[in-house]
Amino acid sequence: MRVFVTGGTGLIGSAVLAELLRHGHSVLALTRSDASAQAAMRAGAEPVRGSLADLEVIRSGAAQADGVIHLAFANDFSGPDALAAAVAEETAALTTLGEELLGSDRPLVTVSGTPWVEGRPSTEADPVPTEGPVGGRGRTVTAILELASRGLRSTAVRMPRTVHNNGDGGFAGLLTGIARRTGVSGYPGDGTQRWPAVHALDAAVLFRLALEQAPAGTAWHAVDDEGDQVRDIAAVIGRRLGLPVQEVPAETFGPLGAIFATDQPASSAHTRQTLGWEPKHPSLLEDLENVQP
């Protein structure tokens, strides 16, 4: 299959790109810079220069492909306006991808976060949030899945709060960065709230399985660790960096503070049983031992 991948050289994307190529697919990779284009070529993909804002490039990439995996996102959490702009940019790009693939029965695999449900781990049957700081992403992915009734094999891989590799990535990576800047390995609230996690190399396998197998209109959970307590995550980071570990105000974490403070475990039982997905790489707490002082 010839696959167009957005975000193909990031933490998750580079793993997805390698997984696709290893299983006989060819890849067109959207790249924003010369360095990213060179990385894609070294991996064996064909670079397509552009960004999520280049909608004609996005449309052309999808037109040339047998399927699409969408991973790119600006990841600008510096403030509410920056986050809203990132969500709006992604919405326009996904809408363009959906329009191009509509009626073709080709797969469009997109990404969202796992939802949170009070009192229990969320499952693939639970809806993603459509309100709050990242509610726009939930609304967009929901709209893309609804295109399944119009000849688009749209599916969503829901990612946990931390997708990690070699001690970096996701919410845990943000905690590490904030700890380096502030001199404290902090967590909001009492730290008993739980975050799910997955290794990037395991997540990459699920993206390939969704591309190859997933029925239209379905959602899947890329969750290995159902939920690690945030204070346990902060404790490993603090030990690795030689910093004190303590509660800090939610405002420390900017527009994500409220999300950081939320208990949000998630299950992947249905995904494992249905698609045969079996994570094999280190857990989050094991992988955080790779954080460098």
Explain this structure:
The protein is of the alpha/beta class and 293 residues long. It has helices at residues 11-22, 34-43, 55-63, 80-101, 135-146, 170-182, 200-213, 230-241, 257-260, 269-275, 284-287; strands at residues 2-6, 26-31, 46-49, 67-70, 107-113, 153-159, 162-164, 185-187, 194-199, 218-221, 225-229, 245-247. The chain has a 7-stranded parallel beta sheet with strand order 3-2-1-4-5-6-10, with helices on both faces. Strands 7-9-11 form a 3-stranded mixed beta sheet. Helix 1 crosses helix 7 (200-213), helix 4 (80-101) packs parallel to helix 5 and helix 6 packs across helix 8. The model has no long low-confidence stretch (mean pLDDT 94). One of its GO terms (molecular function) is aldehyde dehydrogenase (NAD+) activity.
Q: Write out the strand line-up for the largest beta sheet, numbering strands in chain order.
A: 3-2-1-4-5-6-10
Please provide the count of β strands.
12
Q: Which sheet architecture does the biggest sheet show?
A: 7 strands, parallel
CATH architecture of the largest domain: 3-Layer(aba) Sandwich
Would you tell me which CATH topology of the largest domain applies?
Rossmann fold
Gap between N and C termini:
43 Å
CATH class of the largest domain: Alpha Beta
Relative strand content: 15-25%
Tell me the overall shape.
globular
**Uncertain parts:** none
Total of DSSP H or I helical runs spanning 4+ residues? 11
Number of domains: 2
